[in-house]
Specification:
The complex is a heterotrimer of chains A (about 350), B (about 280) and C (about 290).
Chain A: E1 3-12, E2 15-25, E3 30-34, H1 41-49, E4 56-61, E5 64-65, H2 71-74, E6 76-79, H3 91-100, H4 110-123, H5 139-152, E7 157-161, H6 169-186, E8 189-194, H7 197-203, E9 206-211, E10 214-219, H8 221-226, H9 231-236, E11 241-248, E12 251-254, E13 257-261, E14 268-274, E15 279-282, E16 288-298, E17 301-308, E18 314-319, E19 330-335, E20 339-342, E21 345-347
Parallel strand pairs in A: 3-8, 3-9, 6-7, 7-8
Antiparallel strand pairs in A: 1-2, 1-4, 4-5, 9-10, 11-12, 11-14, 12-13, 14-20, 15-19, 16-17, 16-19, 17-18, 20-21
Helix pairs in contact in A: 3-4, 3-5, 4-5
Chain B: H1 14-52, H2 55-88, H3 94-100, H4 103-106, H5 109-120, H6 127-132, H7 141-165, H8 169-177, H9 182-190, H10 195-211, H11 214-220, H12 230-239, H13 243-274
Helix pairs in contact in B: 1-13, 2-7, 2-10, 5-11, 7-10, 7-11, 8-9, 10-13, 12-13
Chain C: H1 19-48, H2 52-60, H3 63-96, H4 102-114, H5 117-128, H6 135-140, H7 149-160, H8 162-175, H9 178-185, H10 190-219, H11 222-228, H12 238-247, H13 251-278
Helix pairs in contact in C: 1-13, 2-13, 3-7, 3-8, 3-10, 5-7, 5-11, 7-10, 7-11, 8-10, 9-10, 10-13, 12-13
The chains are: A alpha+beta (about 350), B mainly alpha (about 280), C mainly alpha (about 290).
């Protein structure tokens, strides 16, 4: 079932949580909502479920307007961050709950419910756990019961709020693969919220980045990482360098160095972003140069702090494998996949002094 | 392994503090209760039972325990609603109301007794209109019931309130996303985990009501066989200088109360295990 | 960057009961509390001033009533300090040490709450009455306990014993003993540690316990009724005086004394509520345990 969200707004008292979010999710897609805490991602998820009443905007499920539907009518599967399992019910009772609460006319027979529960237990690899209580399960097992409970009602969309937030790193990694796999098999349209960029980039078909209640960018993981659309995305995803740039007379200048030409009429301060791995070492004498002040190892790579000759700014640069670069050495730099932004908007560099993303 | 009687601690003062507390408890609580047990044992089990089966004693015990049980039952409902309203809704005067719940704790029982009597007497604010409808409250068992509800209400509210306040809102939301109506959510998701708290409140209210004297004697009318409660019968026997009779009634009352509390505790343990509180 | 709120904001409107049901429930709760609590309380004051302020003052200047007020103050003045000191001692032992039989001790401390006050009075009679265990010997030395002030004090001590300890134990357990251990490492003596560290930490909880203990000491009826002998002007406490005047059909007199006691209850309640609101963190708040 596809989801279409238009102009969604939500304020809590005086503080806005969402302003005018538009989002389209294709049928069967797995979307990760990523953002810092307070960015509105959970509010957006809860609004889709009907747990929050938006102040304005529409939500359509499969072409049908669901904006006025109550939580109960929306038929979404919602997995809560802390699972919200009913502690006084067994695993089987938890999973069967959504079927048992249906009005008599649409409620499956008891035997069918049991059958469905067993099916789901098998799906989430918890066969034989039906009589246990949530208090007797590990975190990962609870998470899977919560998922089975949400899937039992054959939801139109599956919504997960920080699905792995409460688990330790090891279980988290296993469950990620498992959930990705499960999604492939069941094909539910799925939206999950996370503040962990690795999780979002690894699992999602597309990632939607939220900041201060607005959508910054939505796209495939590679697109998000390689071509960040806004300064926020550049800084939020991965590592990046930020350099102040002056725009004047159709040129973008970094200190004395001219980075390239911009459309005439653009004037004033701008910001240049690039990732440490996109600063390519070359011989001194090119456009940019600097002095290495510090070199450190970060897992598989070596990274250097470099003071730019042009402005004196400090930047981070990844060193190629095997490079014997050392502190106080002088290096030349060429930048690739840069993003130039003036007043938060992307500015195109018209020639190839440094290659834009 | 040797079991330590006292776990070592760097803090001073254990011996004097415990000594003083134990001495005081012994003098004040244990010796008096021992006197009661000693006096009762003088009567023997058959003596106790024959006094318990006297019609007037049996009627008083039945009335005390029966009405206390009914009052605690009603307080499950009343206290439940009051606790719900006080924890879930924000409205002007909520804090005042919340503080007022403790009034029966703080108000001397004799004051509660005369006040309830005045309100529910045939010429009282509530008793008057009810009397016109042919319903007598004061000086009937119904009056006793009203007093016992009054005295038990705060126990129920204060037992349920904190647990209700800590219910995770997510479980209610989960129930709603699974299609359950609000009413069903309340009865199947919110209330069942509160059962131990309700039981605690029930036990406290029951225990208090069984022994209650001051707030009841004024409103009860004190007619033997009709509206004479067991604590009053103890007083009556003492006034007749029948200490044996008083001791017997008191012993039976205590034994029944502790048996009831024990049963409630056992049920409690079962419920807790069932709800996975263990 | 803006600091994000710690809690996810949510509105309960999407889930809560319909406004009409909500209003009905609030109305019901208010009605229950009004019928059971406010109306009786209001009656006390209205009846007390049934013959105007002059009638109220008159009633309170009756010599027997005055003597009952005096007796009540004396009884409270004896019982409250004793039970406060022993309550603190009991709380110190229970909250600061792990020892065999601790839970039994806690049960014993609570015992007076589950024993009918009338039975407490009866126990005193069985010990010190004319035909009691110690009564005859004491009587031969000219000491009267039952139907006299000592009996009243004894019965009151019994019923008010748990209040201070019950307020302090959860509070002290929750606070832990780090502060006290720090004081000891800095060289404080046991007493000095208690006076300068423990007492300041528990003062509000202690005050709440003392207030409740005092309210009960002044208001106790059942236990005292059994042992007092109801000698007017001599062994009647205020609650007993209420009963005596009520049985005389002296409504203004009975309710005037009742009004004083109700006032005491209200003051106790108000102070306790203020303490709970202002020092929520420093009070055990029995509701949490």
């Amino acid at each position: 079932m596809d989801i279409k969200i238009r102009g969604l707004q939500k304020t809590f008292g005086a503080s806005p949580a969402l302003h005018g979010v538009d989002l389209d999710v294709g049928s069967g897609e797995l979307i990760g909502l990523l953002g810092p805490s307070g960015s509105g991602k959970t509010t957006l998820l809860r609004a889709i479920a009907g747990l929050e009443t938006p102040n304005a905007g529409q939500i359509h499920f499969g072409g049908q307007d669901a904006s006025r539907q109550s939580v109960q009518e929306r038929r979404v599967g919602f997995v809560f961050q802390n699972y919200a399992l009913f502690r006084h019910m067994s695993v089987a009772e938890n999973i069967a709950y959504g079927l048992r609460v249906r009005p008599r006319a649409t409620r499956p027979a008891a035997r069918q419910i049991t059958h469905r529960v067993n099916e789901l237990l098998e799906l989430v690899q918890l066969t034989g756990f039906d009589a246990r209580f949530p208090g007797q399960l590990s975190g990962g097992q609870r998470q899977r019961v919560a998922l089975a409970r949400a899937l039992a009602v054959e939801p139109r969309v599956l919504l997960l709020d920080e699905p792995f937030g409460a688990l330790d790193a090891r279980v988290r990694k296993d469950l990620r693969h498992w959930l990705r796999d499960l999604h492939k098999r069941t094909g539910h349209t799925t939206i999950f919220v996370t503040h962990d960029q690795d999780e979002a980039l690894e699992m999602s078909d597309r990632v939607a980045i939220l900041n201060r209640g607005a959508l910054e960018q939505i796209g495939a993981p590679d697109e998000i990482y390689d071509s960040p659309a806004t300064p926020f995305v550049f800084q939020f995803i991965g590592d990046s360098n930020r350099l102040p740039v002056d725009l004047a007379n159709g040129r973008a200048r970094l200190g004395a160095a001219i980075l390239g030409h911009v459309a005439p009429g653009l004037e004033g301060a701008a910001e240049l972003f690039f990732r440490p791995e996109n600063a390519v070492l070359e011989a001194v004498g090119g456009l940019l140069s600097g002095e290495v002040t510090h070199v450190r190892r970060q897992g598989a790579r070596r990274r250097a702090d470099v003071r730019l000759d042009q402005t004196g700014a400090m930047i981070e640069v990844d060193l190629p494998h095997g490079a014997a670069t050392q502190v106080t050495q002088r290096i030349g730099l060429r930048l690739e996949r840069v993003g130039l932004f003036a007043q938060g908007r992307r500015v195109s560099l018209l020639d190839e002094a440094c290659r834009a993303a | 392994m040797r079991i330590a009687l006292l776990k070592p601690s760097p803090l001073p003062g254990f011996a004097p503090a415990l000594g003083a507390a134990l001495l005081w408890l012994g003098v004040l609580v244990l010796i008096p209760l021992a006197a009661l047990v000693w006096r009762a044992s003088g009567l023997g089990l058959s003596g106790l039972l024959s006094i318990a089966s006297q019609p007037r004693v049996a009627a008083a015990l039945k009335l005390s325990f029966g009405l206390s049980f009914l009052a605690a039952m009603l307080n499950v409902g009343l206290g439940g609603v009051v606790a719900w309203v006080l924890t879930r809704y924000e409205f002007p005067g909520r804090r005042l109301l919340d503080a007022a719940v403790d009034l029966p704790f703080a108000l001397p029982t004799a004051v509660a007794g005369v006040a309830l009597t005045a309100v529910y007497a045939p010429n009282g604010w509530i008793g008057g209109p009810l009397d016109a409808l042919g319903l007598k409250v004061a000086f009937t068992p119904l009056g006793i019931f009203v007093a016992l509800v009054f005295i038990g209400l705060p126990f129920m509210v204060r037992s349920v309130e904190p647990v209700l306040a800590e219910v995770e809102p997510e479980t209610e939301e989960a129930s709603a996303t699974l299609g359950a109506s609000r009413l069903r959510t309340i009865f199947q998701v919110v209330l069942p985990p509160l059962a131990p708290a309700f039981l605690t409140g029930f036990a406290l209210a029951l225990a208090r009501a069984v022994g209650e004297y001051g707030s009841v004697v004024f409103i009860s009318g004190n007619i033997p066989f009709v509206s004479e409660i067991a604590p009053l019968l103890i007083v009556v026997r003492l006034e007749e200088f029948d200490e044996a009779g008083a001791t017997a009634v008191a012993t039976i009352m205590l034994a029944l109360s502790f048996a009831l509390l024990l049963i409630i505790n056992l049920v409690q343990a079962r419920v807790r295990r069932r709800t996975g509180h263990a | 960057m803006l600091e994000a709120p710690l809690h996810i904001q949510r509105d309960r409107d999407a889930l809560a009961e319909a406004p009409a049901l909500r209003r009905a429930l609030i109305g019901f709760a208010v009605a229950v509390l009004a019928l059971f609590l406010f109306l009786p309380l209001a009656t006390v004051f209205i009846e007390a001033f049934g013959k105007g302020a002059a009638g109220f003052v008159d009633a309170l200047s009756d010599p027997e009533t005055r003597s009952s007020i005096k007796l009540t103050l004396i009884v409270a003045a004896i019982c409250v300090p004793i039970n406060t000191a022993l309550g603190v001692a009991a709380a110190w032992a229970v909250a600061r040490f792990e020892f065999a039989g601790k839970s039994a001790l806690v049960t014993l401390i609570d015992l007076p709450f589950s024993v009918s006050p009338v039975i407490a009075g009866l126990c005193c009679v069985l010990l010190f009455g004319a035909r009691g265990l110690f009564g005859p010997q004491l009587a031969s030395h000219g000491i009267e306990v039952i139907f006299a002030v000592p009996g009243i004090v004894l019965a009151t001590l019994f019923v008010t014993f748990p209040f201070v300890a019950r307020e302090l134990i959860p509070l002290m357990q929750q606070q832990g003993s780090d502060d006290e251990q720090a004081a000891l490492t800095l060289g404080a003596s046991g007493w000095r540690m208690f006076l300068t560290v423990t007492l300041p930490n528990i003062k509000w909880g202690l005050l709440a316990g003392v207030l409740l203990c005092n309210a009960r000491a002044m208001g106790e009826f059942g236990a005292v009724a059994v042992v007092s002998g109801h000698v007017r002007g001599a062994t009647n406490t205020m609650p007993l005086q209420v009963e005596a005047l009520y049985n005389d059909y002296d409504m203004v007199g009975a309710f005037a004394v009742a009004a004083l006691l109700a006032l005491l209850a209200l003051v106790t309640l108000v102070v306790k509520t203020i303490l709970e609101w202002r020092f929520a963190g420093e009070l055990a708040l029995r509701r949490r345990t």
